[in-house]
């Protein structure tokens, strides 16, 4: 496993994904009962945007850099507050943006005392860094494990309420098939959980096959969100990203529709930029 997220941390796909993740966590907090979030491909948790790796690609500049380049408009400030606040907290005392949080940091910062996080990472060095970032945190369990296995062995959570984030690196062939297999197994064990599955937009035919297979599973309440920031540049260039949401909060689609014009205005790179919504199964 060679993928290192530091090269891509804070890019447009991260921003889109993490805004959705924060909205889901905020929704779960509306009920007093505790819940657990399982992040199957957690990474290291916190990324230094001044590092050589981040500078090499500079992807964050067209992501979080562009989004926070000017003040957030009042009409979307409330919805973006959880996402923004975590970033500001991680950069407290810095005059400029230095750190960008990964999914486990965003999630952990938003949890209440009764909630729990399980952060899973397979890459040995990244796992060690992740464990260091959460050392002494009794609310977070960090595991050195293949994230795909957790979709079977760690469900259902003992809290009986949960959110499962599956964000694979897509560095190997077959990730879409593993997503289908993983979510089917997970849903059988924990049908009441909220699931978010991330994927890159590169090859349209591969995505079409994935969506067709997902539809055939018969799993109800599947919402697809996609953000495309530009026309396709090359066959291997990521020009957008998508999120498959199973049992999404009932307000999420409405919230994302409200955020879409702002996100496209800040992150879009040409006139073809758009955010789309589609229910694969509504009930």
Total beta strands: 10
Residue ranges: pLDDT <50 for 5 or more in a row?
Answer: none
Instruction: Characterize the biggest β-sheet.
Output: 8 strands, mixed
Strand content range? 15-25%
Domains, number = 1
Rounded Rg: 18 Å
CATH architecture: 3-Layer(aba) Sandwich
What's the shape? globular
Measured as a percent range, the helix fraction is: 25-40%
The level-1 CATH class: Alpha Beta
Family: Belongs to the RlmJ family.
Keywords: Methyltransferase, RNA-binding, rRNA processing, S-adenosyl-L-methionine, Transferase
Catalytic activity: adenosine(2030) in 23S rRNA + S-adenosyl-L-methionine = N(6)-methyladenosine(2030) in 23S rRNA + S-adenosyl-L-homocysteine + H(+)
Pfam families: RsmJ
Overall description:
This protein has 283 residues and is α/β, with parallel strands linked by helices. The protein has one domain (5-281): Vaccinia Virus protein VP39 (Rossmann fold, 3-Layer(aba) Sandwich). Helix content is 40%, strand content 20%. The protein has helices spanning 12-28, 52-57, 64-67, 74-90, 103-110, 124-133, 147-153, 175-189, 204-216, 252-267; strands at residues 36-39, 46-48, 99-101, 116-121, 140-144, 162-166, 194-201, 222-228, 240-246, 274-281. The chain has an eight-stranded mixed beta sheet, with helices on both faces. Helix 1 (12-28) crosses helix 4, helix 1 runs antiparallel to helix 10 (252-267) and helix 7 (147-153) packs parallel to helix 8. The chain is globular and about 45 Å long. It starts with 11 loop residues before the first helix and ends with a strand. The model has no long low-confidence stretch (mean pLDDT 94).
């Amino acid at each position: 496993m060679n993928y290192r997220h530091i090269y891509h941390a804070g890019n447009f796909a991260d921003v889109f994904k993490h805004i959705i993740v924060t909205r889901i966590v905020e929704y779960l907090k509306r009920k007093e009962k505790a819940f657990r979030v399982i992040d199957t491909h957690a990474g290291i948790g916190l990324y230094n945007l001044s590092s050589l790796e981040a500078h090499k690609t500079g992807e964050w500049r067209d992501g979080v850099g562009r989004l926070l380049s000017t003040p957030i408009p009042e009409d979307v400030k409330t919805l973006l507050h959880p996402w923004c606040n975590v970033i500001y907290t991680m950069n407290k005392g810095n005059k400029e943006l230095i750190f960008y949080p990964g999914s486990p940091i965003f999630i952990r910062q938003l949890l209440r005392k009764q909630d729990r996080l399980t952060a899973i990472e397979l890459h040995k060095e990244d796992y060690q860094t992740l464990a260091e970032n959460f050392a002494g945190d009794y609310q977070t369990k960090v595991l050195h494990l293949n994230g795909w296995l957790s979709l079977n062995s760690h469900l259902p959570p003992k809290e009986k309420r949960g959110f499962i984030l599956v964000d694979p690196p897509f560095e190997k062939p077959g990730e879409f098939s593993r997503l289908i297999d993983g979510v089917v197994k997970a849903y059988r064990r924990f049908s009441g959980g909220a699931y978010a599955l991330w994927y890159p937009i590169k090859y349209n035919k591969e995505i079409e096959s994935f969506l067709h297979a997902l539809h055939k599973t018969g799993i109800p309440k599947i919402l697809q969100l996609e953000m495309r920031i530009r026309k396709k540049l090359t066959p291997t260039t990521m020009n957008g990203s998508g999120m498959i949401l199973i049992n999404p909060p009932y307000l999420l689609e409405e919230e994302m529709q409200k955020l879409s014009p702002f996100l496209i205005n800040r992150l879009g790179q040409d006139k073809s930029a758009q955010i789309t919504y589609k229910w694969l199964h509504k009930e």
